[in-house]
Amino acid sequence: MRLFTGILIALLVLSFSGVAAAAEKKPGVPPVQYGTRGNLDCTSARTITCGETVSGDNSNGVNNVDHYSCSGWTESGPEEVWVLNLPGPDCWIVSVDIDPSGCDLDVFFLASCDEADCIDYGDSGFVTECLLPGTYYIVVDGYNGAECSYTLNVECETCECPEIPCCPTPFHCHIFDFNQSSNNYFSMACGGQPVWGWGMDQECIPAVACDGVQVTSILGTYLNSDYPSDAGEIAVIGPIFLDYCCWCMELCHFYDIEDRWDGGNVKISTDGGSTWQLITPAGGYDDTANDDCSCVPGEPVFTGWSGVFVRDCFDLTGYTGRQIWIGFFFGSDGSFEYCGWYPKWVKFGGYEPSATERSSWGSIKSQYR
User: For residue 17, how many other CB atoms are within 10 A of its CB?
Assistant: First the structure.
C-alpha cells in the first residue's frame, strides 16, 4: 500500500511539474523593462477592418521589438503590423483571434505605433475593454523567434463610451498661440539647467501642428538642438482669470524625450508661482519620471516620443473664478539628450454661457488622443 501511495505521489508530482513547466513558457509576471520607445515599424502596416479575417505571415517582417509593455513574454520573432481604424462617434469592444500554422505566434493590441502603448495581448486572442474611436495597431510577433503563416480575425461591437470630464472648446476665453508671440511667458528655476526658449525650430518638430496649422514659432526646450543633461526649468504663462465658462484647457504639443529618464508635466498655481499643483490630462501622462530626473523626479510626465503634434485636455473646474498661472515643468537626468518638449498653443474655454450642460465624452472623444 505504501509502495502504491509513493508511486501515486510521484506521478502527481511529475504531472504538476509538467503543468508548471508548460506555464513557465509564458509566465504571468509584471511587464519587463523594455528599451527605447518607438522601435516598432508601422510604415508597411496592412489595413484590417472590423468583421474581417485576413491571412498573414510574420516571417516576412523584421525583428525590432523584443518586449511589449503589457507582457513579460520574450517576442524575438519578426513582427507583422496591422492598422485598425475604429470610427466615431461610437466606442468599441474589439475581439481579436489568431490561428497560426505550426508555430507559436502572439498578438498584441496597441494604442499607437509604440510597443510602450500596449493595451491587450494573447497567444490565441483577446477581448479589449471599451475603447474610444481612433487608430489602433495589431502586431503579430513570434514567441522566442517563431515565424510562420497565420489567419487573423477581428470583430467589433459598440459599447457605452466612458465619461471623461473634459471637452472641446467651441467658446474660447483665452488663447496662447506661440505662432503669434511669446505670450510673455517667463522662466523659473526648478533644480537644473535652464532650457526654455521661444522662436522657430527647424531641427526637431513636425512642420504641421494640430488642426493642420503650420508651425512658424513655438515655445520649446533648446530650439534647434537637444536639451542638455541635468535640465530643470519651468516655463510659465499667466496670469489667467477663469470664469465659469473657461473650465477646459487644451494643450497642443509635440515631444521627443528620453523615455522615463526625462520628462515634463503641467502644474497650476494660484499664487504667482510660489506653490504648484500637478494637473492631469484626460488621457493621463505617459509614465513616471526616474528619481534621478531634475525638477520632476518620480512624478507623472509626458515622456518618450509623441510622433506628431498631439492634443491633451485638462479639467480646471476646481479653479473657476480664480486667477491662475500655468507652468510647464521639464527635467532631465545626467546623460542622453533628446530634442525636447514643444507646446504649440494653450486654449481655455468651454461652452457658451447659455449652455445648460456639458457634452459627454462620447460626442467629443475623437478630438483628443
Answer: 10
* HEC string for 102-167: CCCEEEEEECCCCHHHEEEEECCEEECCCECCEEEEEEEEEHHHCCCEEEEEEEEEEECCCCCCCC
Q: Provide the phi-psi class of 238: left if phi over 0, else alpha when psi is between -120 and 50, else beta.
A: left
Q: What is the pLDDT of residue 122?
A: 96
Q: Which of 329, 351, 333 is nearest to 341 (CA)?
A: 329
Strand-pairing partners, residue 327, are 236, 267
- Measured between alpha carbons, how far is 86 from 92 in angstroms, rounded to an integer? 7
Burial pattern 124-142, b for ≥16 Cβ within 10 A else e, equals ebbebeebbbbebbbbbbb
- DSSP calls for 261-305: TSEEEEEEESSTTSS-EE---TT--SEE--TTSSSSTTSEEB-EE
d(CA 153, CA 95) in angstroms, rounded, equals 8
Residue among 248, 246, 249, 250 at smallest CA distance from 353: 246
Dump pLDDT digits (tens) for 195-244.
999 999 988 999 999 888 999 999 999 999 999 999 999 999 999 998 77
> Is the N-terminal amide bond of 133 cis, ω within 30° of 0?
no
Q: What are phi and psi of 17, to 5 degrees?
A: -65, -35
* DSSP character string of 9-37: HHHHHHHHHHHHHHHHTS---PPP---ST
Distance CA 238, CA 323 (A): 9
Convert the pLDDT of each residue in 324-369 to its tens digit: 999 999 999 988 889 999 999 999 987 544 333 333 333 333 344 4
Kindly report the pTM of this predicted structure.
0.55
Contact 101, 142 (CB under 8 A): no
